[in-house]
Specification:
Layout lengths: L9 H11 L3 H17 L6 H26 L7 H19 L3 H26 L3 H20 L9 H8 L1 E3 L2 E2 L2 H17 L1 H11 L1 H6 L4 H27 L11 H10 L11 H20 L6 H32 L1
Length: 335
């Protein structure tokens, strides 16, 4: 091998890899946004506001991961919020109505999320109907069950330990609620990078037919991704109950846009096959920072939805441009 063909080494090579990393752009935007908003409003960087920001990111990142894993297989899950809401009222209801200990209630809620997600995946595989249609239908079903069980009334009897967990801090402004999210992020990163099932998920998203020809069981992989998505949505619902200290039936109603915004801002390819856990985490942070800034500057909160929509459009446009440039580079190299 000639010296020119050797991979770049040393500081220059490391810098090039850093600049090409999926998370670098969103991470840079996150730091720049915090610095800019902190300069305009010093209270933004106060310990209390940073704690509020961390609490929002802790829950919202799980919502984003729940959608991200479905985007990875080239599909979408419109029922993320409905699954999270149903799991949340399961968690709150079992403690309130039946006096179940919090760990058992949490386990039951996670099981509900897993089963709801698995049912989505099974129906998609068995019927061949698009994930959009199946999850749109299941959104209505799961939300209907939620309202039927609760009669639109919240559960107030949340265990004191859960309430304390929702407000406790680990270190400085970092809440305990962030710990499960950090562990999930590490686990997802390891799965996608190191485990066969993670490679199968990305392979199915990249090209399901080619993945099947290479020996990947596409159907079980799709069911796995949806089951994992449901469990992540359930965990988000559980943490939100701990944060709000109430089992509110409206939990999950406003998750849909957020669930897409953070992965897309993080560079996820909507066609599937390429996602980044770290970039999605930074995408979540960007959304939380913008939302908190609008509150600090007394800007109409309804503008949040407009800003999120604009961010999604901009991120998709940038991703398409990047994909076109990569395709052109590959064609040039092939010649």
């Amino acid at each position: 091998m000639s010296p020119a063909a050797l991979p770049a080494a040393g500081p220059d090579g490391a810098l090039a890899r850093l600049l090409r990393a999926d998370w670098f752009g969103p991470g840079l935007v996150t730091l720049a946004a915090m610095a800019l908003i902190g300069a305009l409003s010093p209270s933004f960087l106060s310990p209390l506001n940073l704690q509020i920001l961390a609490l929002a990111i802790a829950v919202n990142a799980l919502i984003a991961f729940s959608q991200m894993i479905i985007i990875a297989i080239g599909q979408m899950n419109l029922s993320v919020g409905a699954i999270g809401g149903l799991s949340a009222i399961t968690f709150g209801g079992l403690m309130d109505a039946f006096g179940l200990p919090a760990p058992l209630a949490a386990g039951a809620a996670l099981l509900v999320g897993l089963l709801c997600g698995a049912l989505n995946g099974l129906f998609i595989v068995w019927t061949g109907i698009s994930a959009f249609v199946i999850t749109l239908a299941s959104l209505s079903i799961y939300k209907g069950i939620n309202l039927g069980v609760t009669r639109a009334e919240p559960f107030y009897g949340i265990a004191e330990g859960v309430k304390a967990f929702g407000q406790a801090l680990v270190l400085g402004p970092l809440p305990w609620l962030a710990v499960p999210t950090i562990l999930v992020a590490l686990g997802l990163s390891f799965m996608l990078a190191r485990l066969p099932i993670g490679r199968f998920v990305l392979a199915v998203g990249g090209n399901a037919h080619a993945a099947e020809l290479s020996g990947v069981s596409v159907g079980p992989t799709v069911v796995f991704a949806h089951a994992l998505s449901g469990m992540l949505a359930a965990l988000a619902g559980i943490l939100l109950v701990a944060r709000l200290q109430i089992g509110q039936p409206t939990i999950g109603d406003d998750w849909l846009i957020l669930s897409f915004a953070a992965p897309v801002i993080g560079g996820a390819v909507l066609a599937g096959g390429h996602v980044s856990v770290a970039a999605t985490l930074f995408g979540t942070a960007i959304v939380a920072i913008i939302t908190q800034a609008l509150v600090l500057f007394n800007i109409d909160p309804f503008l949040v939805q407009i800003v999120l929509g604009a961010l999604i459009l901009a991120a998709v446009g940038l991703n398409r441009l990047r994909e076109a440039r990569l395709a052109a580079t590959r064609r040039g190299a092939a010649r």
